[in-house]
Design a protein that fits this description.
This protein is an alpha+beta fold. The chain contains seven helices and seven strands. The strands form two sheets. A five-stranded mixed sheet has the order 2-4-5-7-6. It has a two-stranded antiparallel ribbon with strand order 1-3. Helix 3 runs parallel beside helix 4 and helix 4 packs antiparallel against helix 6. Bound molecules: adenosine-5'-triphosphate (ATP) and magnesium ion (MG). The site of magnesium ion (MG) has 5 residues, from helix 4. Adenosine-5'-triphosphate (ATP) binds next to helix 4 and helix 6.
Length: 242
């Protein structure tokens, strides 16, 4: 199959899958609404039978909520992104994401540290990029159930702005590290496995890269590299002989 045909087929399958997810949402919300009404009917169980019914209803409601979450995540993932690119200070974005997660980090005994270099502005869709970074930071916090350190570091690497999200958590086995960017791969009880593929896709849409190094029992480091456009162009221009 030619690359064009293959990408057309994939785009078509993507649309089909997104359509399917939308279609499932309507009956699912009917199911959910009716289960909720039933649950209210059994709110004060009068005997053992009613108590068991209430227990089952609660379980069913939990499962429908989970299905809804999976569909929402999927739809968010399937949706193509139109980038609203603006010159952005990555250090500021880090500040905003950290402000959002610090209460949770503190509660989990995770110390948040910043090591911010002097950075050139990069061309970034702020909201999307924040989503990608948030996925990495949430993973890092979740990898430290007994507390630890979360370090956000910015630096220059050749013509790229580099951002490292480092944690001192569980780390990953070689197998997990090789699969962690796969869609729906998760080792967590209630994980959807879309956090990392979504983050990587957002970074790729910015012509950047997202990679990981990890050591089991020690921690992980997720590295984002984004091209520093102005400088790349200036250099390319400068290389042309006069
Ligand atoms: N910082 C990390 N430390 C250790 N393992 C990680 C880390 N980040 C990701 N992983 C591994 O990669 C897997 C995939 O991560 P991803 O964010 O895609 O999904 P998830 O976190 O399991 O689910 P969700 O993001 O939907 O809550 C995780 O289940 C975990 O095994
Ligand atoms: Mg995650």
């Amino acid at each position: 199959m030619s690359p064009n045909k293959e990408s057309d087929r994939l785009a078509f399958l993507g649309q089909l899958a997104a359509g399917l997810a939308h279609e499932i949402r309507t009956p699912l919300s009917t199911l959910q609404a009716n289960l909720q009404l039933l649950q209210e009917d059994f709110d004060e169980p009068r005997d053992e039978r009613e108590r068991r019914a209430l227990q089952r209803l609660t379980l069913l409601l939990k499962e429908t909520a989970r299905l809804e979450e999976i569909l929402n995540d999927f739809l968010r993932f399937a949706a193509g992104h139109k980038l609203d690119l603006r010159p952005t200070d990555l250090n500021r974005v880090i500040g905003e994401v950290l402000e959002f997660v610090t209460p949770e980090a503190t509660q989990k005994k995770v110390r948040v540290l910043k090591s911010l270099g002097e950075m050139p502005k990069v061309s970034v869709d702020g909201n999307l990029f924040k989503q990608a970074l948030l996925n990495l930071v949430m993973n890092a916090i979740q990898a430290m159930p007994n507390g630890g350190e979360l370090i956000l570091k910015t630096s220059r690497w050749r013509d790229f702005a580099q951002l490292d999200v480092i944690d001192t958590g569980t780390g990953m086995s070689a197998e997990t590290a090789s699969k962690c960017f796969d869609v729906y791969y998760s080792t967590k009880k209630t994980g959807t496995g879309l956090g990392l593929p979504m983050a990587r896709r957002i970074v790729h849409e910015h012509d950047g890269t997202l990679t990981v190094t990890s050591e089991e029992g020690k921690g992980s480091c997720f590295t984002i590299r984004l091209p520093v456009e102005g400088e790349v162009q200036a250099k390319a221009g400068g290389a042309i002989p006069l």
